[in-house]
Amino acid sequence: GDEALDMLAEAVGSTGRGLHIHAAEDSYDSSFSHHLYGMGLIERLEKFNLLNDRTICAHGVHLTDPDIERLNSHNCFLVHNARSNMNNGVGYNEKLSAFRNVALGTDGIGSDMFEEMKFAYFKHRDGGGNYGPSDFLRFLHRGNGMLECNFSRKFGNIEKDSCADLVIYDYQYPTPLVDDNIAGHFVFGLSSRDVKTVIINGIFVYEDRKFPFDIKPIYEEASRAALRLWQRIDDIK
């Protein structure tokens, strides 16, 4: 309700952080907001000063043109989650071209951004969209801009003062790899299996296809945590 948005506005204002919200994922989200508050989702967020260049709006499948204009006027980010939208059967965001800042996300459907980019591209083409591989590579890269706005650091470039985040690939390309077709290789060729080494902030977290720590206990604890969660859900039922 309004009290919660007041609290969020205070938190955003006092910390300088941005709001991350899943909005208009289902058509019911928008109709519920109009029914209960007499205005749309994005209009309510704007009313409480929750829209700025650090705002991350996930999904946005059922946002209206005025909603999109509001997001754009505040330089907000729309994070497109193609696989999650498909899995939940909530529809397809046919207005990607109307958003100023589009990035890609998974919404928890795995963590493979290669797969997310491919699904987003193919779903777009299947829906009659005219964006090409380079557009979706741009969306993938724009995630760095989203990070910069929220963490006040430079991401996505190999230059002085940028975060030393690097991914090294071992990719056997079947056709020449040149500037003009690198986006096509990302969509049709490259995948997570080609990742050889990952460096985060100058630290090797994955080298020569091996983690520098034992991952078995992590998977075991994840399995136990899942069982506890399932039990809690069953108890609620």
From TrEMBL:
Boundaries of every Amidohydrolase-related domain copy: 2-202
Entry-linked InterPro entries: Amidohydro-rel, Metal-dep_hydrolase_composite, Metal_Hydrolase, MTA/SAH_deaminase
Molecular-function GO terms, alphabetical: hydrolase activity, acting on carbon-nitrogen (but not peptide) bonds
Pfam family, one: Amidohydro_1
SUPFAM superfamilies hit by this protein: Composite domain of metallo-dependent hydrolases, Metallo-dependent hydrolases
Swiss-Prot/TrEMBL keywords: Hydrolase
Name of the molecule in the record: Amidohydrolase-related domain-containing protein
Organism of this sequence: marine sediment metagenome
